[in-house]
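User: structure tokens for this one?
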Amino acid sequence: MMRYVERRRAPQRTGHRTTLKVPEDVMVTARELAEELGTTPNDAIVRLAEEGTEARRRTLAVQRLARERRDAVARDGQVAGPAYPDADALREAMLDGRRAS
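Assistant:
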């Protein structure tokens, strides 16, 4: 005898309707999540997709920030600043300091 588990009805959503072939490992996770939340596997798949979308947005934001920081560091090396003396000029300055004493 088959038992039916009482669960909430999945919320009505707006958006595109589609038919998908879902990989088995995703389906297992969706069933587990659905059971945990008391909803349908389809609703759980949508929730997993929303979580993945948010994770992707965070990844892109981090990549964008990293690129901006790398570019800022690269630009910093190209900014004209004070010229540093070469080794000969440093040596001459050190020797001049000794001679003045």
